[in-house]
Structure formats: C-alpha cells, structure tokens
What does this fold into?
Amino acid sequence: MNLGILLPKLYFLIGQTKLNWKNRKVAQKFESKEEYFIENGGILLEKQMALSQGRNIEAGMLKILSKSEIEKATNNYDPDQIIGSFHGGTIYKGIFDDKVVAIRTPSKFDSNPELVNLFLTDVSIGMVICHNNMVKIYGCCLETCVPMMVYEFCPNNDLYRYLHGDMELRNLLKWRDRLRVATDTAYALSYMHNALSKPVVHRDVMSFGILLDSLYHAKLANFGHSVVITPGKKDQRWPVHGTPGYIDPEYIETEEVTKKKEVTEKCDVYSFGVLMLELLTSRDPVEMARCGNDLVDDFVSEMKRNGFKATIDMSLIEKGNIDGLQWFTRLALKCVARKGEERPSMIDVVEELWLMQDQSSKA
It folds into this structure.
C-alpha cells in the first residue's frame, strides 16, 4: 500500500476514534493488528505533517507493508539473516520487490512508547527529506505494537567498524576515503538544515550511524531523535539526547528547573566536529567517554604538548597530504568550539570540504 493512498484513510479513522496523539503518555495495548495500524498510522501522520511544515509534500514512494510480508522477508526472523543490532532492536537482511533491503525490528514485541516514537520519527524524516547521502526509507509495517522499518541496504555496514574494528578493516579507509566520508556526511547534514522552510536537527551524529554503500560513500542514518526547530524562537527545548562523547557541551548544560536545553543546528556541527577528530585519530569517542575522557579536550591538549603529527593516526600520513590533514584539523577545531555561535554552519563546512577534496585529487 502506498502512503499517498493511506493518508486520507487515516484522516477519517483518526477523526472517528478521536484520539489525541500529542497527549498520548503511555503505550496502548491493543488486541488486533488493525488497531495498531490506526494508532501507529496516526502518530506517523502527525509527524509527517509537522515535518512538512504545512507544505503539500507528496509521501509518494513509502510503502506500507503487512506483518506477514516482514515475516516472509526475514524468514520468520531467522537469526542467520541478522546483520546488526541497535538499542532496542535487531536488523535483518531481506528482499522486497527484488531488492535487497535492511529490516529494522524491535527485539521484543512489547509496548514501548520510546521505540514507537524513535521508529516513526525515523520513517517520517525519510518521507519528507530525500538526499543521496541519507539512508532511504522504503517502507514500514504499522501492524505491530512497535512499527518495523524497511530501508536501503548498505553492504559495507557502518563507519564505526572501519575506524575501531580489526586492523584489516581499519586499513581499508585511507585518508582520501575518510575525507570523502566526512564530505558526504556534511552534505547530508547541510541538506537537513536547509532543505525545508525550518531546519531539521539530527541530534545523534556518530560513526555508528553512518553507513557505507558498495563504493564506500557515506549515508547518514538514525533520524529517530531529529527535531524541527524555528530559528530565533526562544524556549525551543528538548531533553538532552545523543551519544556520549559526541554531544554538544552547550546542549548538555541543562537548566536546573526544566532539565532541558535549547537545540540549534550548531548541536549537529559540534557532533560532526567530533566525528572529524575521530576520522583523524581513529579514537573512539564513546569508549573515551565511558572512561571519563573527552576526545575534543584530549586532542586539543595533545596538540599543544606534542604537535600535530603526534596527535593524529600516523597511518593517514602519506606523501604530499600533510597540508590537507592540517586543513581538515583546523576545520574540525572550528566545529567543536565551545560556544555554538563560534562554529561554522554546515554549508560553510561543506564548501571547505569540497575544496579539500579538490586539492586532494590534484595531489
């Protein structure tokens, strides 16, 4: 079923049931897949309308799949088809319409409002924003208590394992590859910030959420924590979300009363700057955060003590690329400035990275 056909039906059903999605505090426990379809479809419709910001954006290519279609594609959730996992769920490899896809399912089919919100926000981003460097959403199943997603399959998995996995994988991504990955990711973030009349902030940029296609081009994923903001509007506050080690320190500094902090595009710029330092050093920001350290602080301190070459991953240094590595480092440090107002926009970041790629190709 195409979502363009589904939307009018959902408008009618929601009107009949008079459910208030915004005031929904706890997960509903339903007896039938039809009731879950209406519940999840209503939330998805609300999110799609919020993201489209009143514009008539065609939901078009997103397919609504049945639970039986998901079961068939995963061979009844065959463990041999598992290709990954994430907090709260499992990712299977499957085939739909003669196309290899990735299928994201919850680990347990129990009511979970947080997972419902994450999954449907992810889907709604794919409905409204489409870019070559963003993972494409092909469809979803609304018939279960936690919806399931079908999205683009990226055969080379996530960036994290190439930076922090075994040495064979780590040696595959040379400097030019890492520069291209950074450029692809920056382009996707810039598009999110500028494609619609209001910016969409990702809020969870990290190496685990960047997938690599067959040519090792980067595709940004994991949009479940994304929010729409109104530039200049005060009191746009959300609870802090993100991955430790990447989160903007200005965003972390919560207020004593509300425990919420204002979100801006510069939150993504900071996280992207951490990713750039991760690409330069091959150090894991998450593992460092678990040990009470911070990649940004350690990088700046080591640069002052030991200099540039002693701070980055030595395997990246090749003949003629020192200037490019230093340029990349300077840009990364701009992105992780302590104050958001001192950071560049993602458009500025993309422009500099394009120039770096051009220089690198001539070297």
Remarks:
- Residues 277 and 329 are 7 Å apart (CA to CA).
- Residues 3-152 form a domain with the Phosphorylase Kinase; domain 1 fold (CATH 3.30.200.20).
- The chain has two domains: 3-152, 159-362.
